[in-house]
Design goal:
single chain, about 100 residues, elongated
Length: about 100
């Protein structure tokens, strides 16, 4: 979930996908009242309502929403680890980091 939060903060996807992130988080054993509500919302839900439950979920779970610069650092570090472990080719990893 932490990487998905960083991806959202870095602008990799918009608020319409946050309810699906909520569902994924529940499946990954994260749990809070607001997270359950977020997971139950659909793509037609107003942005302000989705954002309210997303931010409230993070607060309830003790997760900070990173600033854009920090989110890019988190994502770049993850890609670098995948390059080092051999999960990702250097060129492909470099392109991912460049795209952030």
């Amino acid at each position: 979930m932490l990487l998905k939060v960083a991806e959202f903060s870095a602008g990799r996807f918009n608020y319409h996908k946050l309810p699906a992130l909520g569902t994924e988080a529940l499946l990954d054993n994260y749990d809070s009242e607001s997270l359950r509500i977020l997971a139950g919302l659909d793509e037609k839900t107003a942005e302000d309502e989705v954002m309210f439950y997303f931010k409230r979920s993070l607060r309830e779970l003790g997760i900070l929403l990173p600033e854009v610069k920090e989110a890019i650092y988190i994502l770049s570090k993850e890609v670098a680890c995948k390059i080092i472990s051999g999960e990702l080719e250097e060129y492909d990893g470099g392109r991912l980091i460049w795209d952030y």
